[in-house]
Design a protein that fits this description.
Blueprint: H1 7-32, H2 45-59, H3 61-79
Helix pairs in contact: 2-3
Length: 87
């Protein structure tokens, strides 16, 4: 007995899944923010990286070359899974 799911039932499943994921993400973010893992007053590494990238773009020269070299070496290593496992 193969019973097919109708459009209405599939829509209900998708809507329920989306609501569950969004509420779980919101709950997790609310619990993790301002904890030991994600301190509210500390500088986050992503922010430091973005700041260094903007600085390299503004100054140009040697910093820009180092940025491109890091991307050229780091991206293939990351994408092939050979990088350091953190977490």
């Amino acid at each position: 007995m193969n019973k097919r799911i109708g459009i209405g039932e599939a829509g209900t499943l998708v809507l329920g899944t989306v609501l569950a994921v969004v509420s779980a993400a919101g709950f997790s973010a609310g619990k993790l923010f301002d904890s030991n893992v994600f301190p509210a007053r500390g500088a986050w590494p992503m922010g430091q990286t973005v700041a260094a990238t903007i600085e390299a773009g503004d100054k140009g020269g040697r910093k820009a070359v180092e940025l491109v070299q890091g991307l050229a070496v780091g991206m293939p290593i990351h994408n092939t899974g050979m990088g350091l496992k953190t977490g």
